[in-house]
UniProtKB/TrEMBL annotation:
Protein name per Swiss-Prot or TrEMBL: Glutamate-1-semialdehyde 2,1-aminomutase
Protein origin, superkingdom: Bacteria
UniProt similarity note: Belongs to the class-III pyridoxal-phosphate-dependent aminotransferase family. HemL subfamily.
Places the protein is found: Cytoplasm
Organism, as annotated: Flavobacterium frigoris (strain PS1)
Database matches in Pfam families: Aminotran_3
Pathway membership, UniProt: Porphyrin-containing compound metabolism; protoporphyrin-IX biosynthesis; 5-aminolevulinate from L-glutamyl-tRNA(Glu): step 2/2
GO molecular-function terms, A-Z: glutamate-1-semialdehyde 2,1-aminomutase activity; pyridoxal phosphate binding; transaminase activity
Enzyme class: isomerase
Nucleotidyltransferase listed as a keyword: no
């Protein structure tokens, strides 16, 4: 396949946009080559500016769980746009999507909408600090919670790929309030809590990590965090920006049976438009302005186009009770297929999978945290990535990313992908 026009467009973009992209993970820095410029997408496929068709395993990094240009979402956005695109005043639509989200997710009474996952996590932490009247937070190395200052400490995929896990521009004052723990290591968390008695407002965690490949929590990890939080007057924040409305109707809270105090959403909840949200039980949410003292706001928050897209997406997921099972089955099928061909070609690998999230690591040891995620062979990954691209398959241009399976993918697409991996892995 040729990517000539994409290369030209990238050269033009580089002149006026830093690195040619508006979000660093889109650049091909970790794998070499130039990013592909998309013209349009439908269902499971991307169509690029060179006229190539690619099977998409990234799906805008998660949101397009039902495939690209999903009809009910497109229709809802078009109809709403005709009525005005932003008012800065309340609309009934906001209550409708809020009520539906609250009905789908366990353990939340109220939800507030923002414009990105970053904003959701940033606001959740401010709320936790205001509510507990404490300053410090614990985050896990390799977990990503958006690009706000408090979180850019060992921040997972994007930041690691670009060699800046701790970004310049974050002040020492801010960094000192973020304590870093190892994913799946409860003892480590216990030690941090002991050393910072009565100072920790919140523990924020991706309850299934998706930004260092896909790393499910070990048995007892989330339960242990819940116990530690309850015992020490710490709020547990589940960052479900990636997992919410993807791994189950009610996200990882439903899947694990562990209750969080605050839950963050993004990606799927916006149906492909810029939306984030955070939610909690009533007494916590009532701590927000205008009811409470913790300030949080947004000119475009609850934007009618974004809410229309999100509502259409959540309704589709809510109405199809078999969806999450169906996605998990497709992902398992892909897993078994990839495993078979990689074994047959004597490739050293580990595959992690849960629900519709899957990642392939080129290392034999179990991948359970940031350190083990970093042991994969990046040279092999580069060949894998570019080989698949030549076969018309798009996976994320970094070994630290999860693949997202969508309902639009057919078993023929999955078979084609497995055959392509067989072909490509013969060249390693
Ligand atoms: C993508 C992501 C975010 C950030 O969301 P943006 O919409 O990119 O700001 C936060 N947390 C997790 C777990 C994510 O995957």
């Amino acid at each position: 396949m040729l990517y000539k026009r994409s290369s030209q467009l990238f050269a033009e973009a580089e002149k006026v946009i830093p690195g040619g992209v508006n979000s660093p993970v889109r650049a091909f820095k970790a794998v070499g080559g130039t990013p592909i410029f998309v013209q349009r997408a439908k269902g499971a496929y991307l169509y690029d500016e060179d006229g190539n068709r690619l099977i998409d395993y990234i799906n805008s990094w998660g949101p397009m769980i039902l495939g690209h240009a999903f009809e009910p979402v497109v229709k809802a956005v078009i109809e709403k746009a005709k009525l005005g695109t932003s008012f800065g005043m309340p609309t009934e639509l906001e209550t409708q999507i809020a009520a539906l989200a609250v009905s789908m997710v366990p353990n939340i009474d109220k939800i507030r909408f923002v414009n990105s996952g970053t904003e959701a996590c940033m606001s959740a932490v401010r709320l936790a600090r205001g509510f507990t009247k404490k300053d410090k937070i614990i985050k896990f190395a390799g977990c990503y919670h958006g690009h706000s200052d408090s979180f850019l400490i060992q921040a997972g995929s994007g930041a690691i790929t670009f060699g800046s896990p701790n970004s310049p521009g974050v002040t020492a004052g801010t960094a000192k309030d973020t304590l870093l723990a190892t994913y799946n290591d409860l003892q480590n968390v216990r030690t941090l809590i002991e050393a910072n008695k009565n100072e920790i407002a919140a523990i924020i965690v991706e309850p299934v990590a998706g930004n260092m490949g896909c790393i499910p929590p070990n048995k007892g990890f989330l339960e242990g965090l819940r116990q530690l939080c309850t015992a020490n007057d710490i709020l547990l924040i589940f960052d479900e920006v990636m997992t919410g409305f993807r791994l189950a109707r009610g996200g990882v809270q439903e899947l694990s049976g562990v209750d969080a105090d605050i839950v963050c959403f993004g990606k799927v909840i916006g149906g492909g438009l810029p939306v984030g949200a955070f939610a909690a039980r009533e007494d916590i949410m009532n701590y927000l302005a205008p009811l409470g003292p913790v300030y949080q706001a947004g000119t475009l928050s609850g934007n009618p186009l974004a809410m229309a897209a999100g509502l259409a997406m959540l309704q589709a997921l809510d109405n199809d009770r078999a969806i999450f099972q169906r996605l998990a089955e497709k992902t398992a099928y892909l897993h078994e297929g990839i495993e078979k061909v990689l074994e047959a070609n004597n490739v050293v690998f580990t595959i992690n999978r849960i629900g519709s999230m899957i990642s392939v690591h080129f290392d034999a040891a179990p991948v359970v945290d940031l350190k083990s995620a970093g042991n994969g062979d990046n040279e092999t990954f580069k060949k894998f990535f570019h080989g698949l691209l030549q076969e018309g398959i798009y996976i994320a241009p970094s070994a630290y990313e999860t693949w997202f399976i969508t309902d639009a993918l057919t078993y023929e697409d999955l078979d084609f992908t497995i055959q392509a991996i067989d072909k490509v892995s013969k060249t390693f």
